[in-house]
Write a structure and sequence with these properties.
Elements lengths: L1 E7 L8 H18 L7 E7 L15 E6 L3 H12 L9 E3 L5 E4 L5 E5 L14 E4 L2 H4 L4 H11 L2
Antiparallel strand pairs: 1-6, 1-7, 2-3, 2-4, 4-5, 5-6
Helix pairs in contact: 1-2
C-alpha cells in the first residue's frame, strides 16, 4: 500500500469562499480515486450510541459499530464531503472491501488516502485550492486502516 494526502492549499475559514470550492474539489478527487477501475464496494464503520444518529457524540463502552455501505456514488460523495469539511462531523474511515483502498480524514480538511501500489495518485487540477502530497512512507506496508475496520466488525 502507498499513501497520499489531499490538503487545502490555504488556511480554511468558514467565511472564505475558497473553503466550499476546496470541499467540492477535494471530495471529487477522493471519490474518483476510491472508485478507480469501477470499484464501488465502499463501506464505513460508524461508532455511535444505540438509537442515535450518524455523527452523534458517542460514549466509550456504550457505542456500537454500525457498518454503512456506500456503493452509490452520491452517498459516497456526500459522506466524503461531510468528512473533508472541517466543520463537519463525519471524519471516519471509508474503505473498499474489494481493493483495500481507504481514506481517513484530518480535523483541518485533509483526506489521507491509502492506495494500492499500482493505483494512480490523484492530481490536483487547481493547486491554488488543493495540494496532493505523496507520502508513501507514511503508511507503506502497515495495517493502520485494517485495524480500524477489523476492530469495528469483529469487536476485537
Amino acid at each position: 500500500m502507498k499513501a497520499c494526502a489531499i490538503i487545502p492549499a490555504f488556511d480554511m475559514d468558514a467565511t472564505d469562499p475558497r473553503t466550499q470550492a476546496y470541499i467540492e474539489l477535494a471530495s471529487a478527487m477522493v471519490v474518483k480515486t476510491l472508485r478507480q477501475g469501477g470499484d464501488h464496494f465502499h463501506f464505513v464503520v460508524d461508532w455511535r450510541d444505540p438509537d442515535t444518529a450518524i455523527g452523534s457524540v458517542y460514549s466509550e463502552g456504550v457505542a456500537e459499530p454500525h457498518v454503512t455501505q456506500l456503493a452509490d456514488v452520491d452517498a459516497l460523495t456526500s459522506r466524503v464531503a461531510q468528512s473533508v469539511n472541517p466543520n463537519g462531523c463525519l471524519g471516519t474511515t471509508i474503505r473498499s472491501i474489494a481493493t483495500c483502498r481507504a481514506v481517513t480524514f484530518g480535523f483541518d480538511g485533509q483526506a489521507f488516502l491509502c492506495l494500492r501500489h499500482e493505483d494512480d495518485a490523484p492530481v490536483s487540477p487547481d493547486p491554488s485550492l488543493v495540494r496532493v502530497n505523496e507520502d508513501y512512507d507514511y503508511l507503506t506496508q502497515t495495517d493502520y486502516f485494517d485495524g480500524w475496520i477489523r476492530t469495528a466488525v469483529n469487536g476485537s
